[in-house]
Amino acid sequence: MSYLKDASRWLLAATVVGSGTLHFIRPEVFIKIVPDWLPAPRALVLVSGFFEILGGLGLLLPRTRRVAGWGLMALFAAVFPANVTMATHKIYTDNPWILWGRLPFQAVLIAWAGRSAQPDDRDAKGGENDHVASD
Length: 135
Known about the structure:
By secondary structure, this protein is an all-alpha fold.
């Protein structure tokens, strides 16, 4: 089970680090989906990219895993309006299954980040018998 949890965590980390990197390489792709009512689209794209990278790397370190997971959950919720803009303005595709199917996927990402933020049993200090009271 630990192998699957590790693999899942690494996959999410690689995904968000890759996505965050794209925010810097091709910011115009993300600027296009920032809602009109938000100020400074370029700055928002770069800041969100930075925190995606930071969160992804943070998931890989036991000491920062929890805060990184919570940060990614907040980030995934914060960027939801961009996904709504993409769907309502048919940005990048006219396929409604892709546009509208992307919206509930944010909940999957939030849950995935939450699961990835949980410590492994081997991360606990002192070993597996910490819960046993000593005499």
